[in-house]
Amino acid sequence: PRREKSLDDALQQARLAVGGELGAGAFATVHLVRRQPDGERFALKLVDKARTPHDVMQRELHVLRVIGQHQHVVSMVDFLETPNAWGVLLDLVTGGEVFERICADGAFSEQDAAALVRQVALALKHVHAAGVCHRDLKPENLLLCSPEHDAKVKLCDFGLAAFYGEGHPPMEGRSGTVGYMAPEQLRGLPYGPEVDLWAVGVILYILLSGFHPFDPDGSADDDALVANVLAHKVDFTDECWRHVSAGARDVICGLLHPDPSQRTTADQLLSSPWVCGHAAATPLPG
Ligand code: ADP
Ligand code: MG
Q: Per the database record, which ranges form the Protein kinase domain (predicted)?
């Protein structure tokens, strides 16, 4: 489809030249852009106004401003608006999604998985300290800074994020992607930032096995997924787990704890022997 004229005008005014598409999610398409004066490259997230209410976009922008810059978070550089779309200028990462990496290479080694989880935990620590819950953690929203094997990881997509704590309405209701939602969220209970750690547990399970803990053969629909999560059907019986350390499985169980008050926190994750032990074995970026 041809771009609206006003978008071209806005891009020209911002002195941005548009290149190819970097990715797309449920709400946005993201393009590579080059800032003409200095040639620096960024990612431009274009959000269609017809599909995203104004207050939802405002919240994402507010969240991005509050979070600011962090080595493991994709940060906002600028913002533009046209009659039909919003454009969020983001710092660029060029290694693609962790999702694509899993599809291409299969399961991660424990060492690589620990390095990734450590970086996600650092991102979450920062985000939660700012009073923000991400609420849509999944391999599609974890981006690699470069195509290198040991590329740094950044958390992106604050489109479903919410402020929590004093002065904010309690978080409740389903928000995110069913396969990564914590049981308290699926039950419709008020919930806290622990839901993000649950999602890290699902992600870690996938990284180490190549399949989803609550949908091992990839055939479950949303209702079946919900039923499996609520029944807490997570097991390590598949052959592949025979080659995974007990330490890694313990970390997964701590993250996939059905009781949010007992679930591993970002700080506990960062100091867990498995994350420290394996992560320390390779020089970590940052
Ligand atoms: P949505 O809300 O539609 O899911 P995202 O913010 O997740 O939008 O962006 C969609 C996809 O675009 C991401 O999954 C990723 O592939 C790509 N993308 C997003 N931000 C960047 C970025 N800063 N650099 C490179 N690619 C990005
Ligand atoms: Mg997304």
A: 16-275
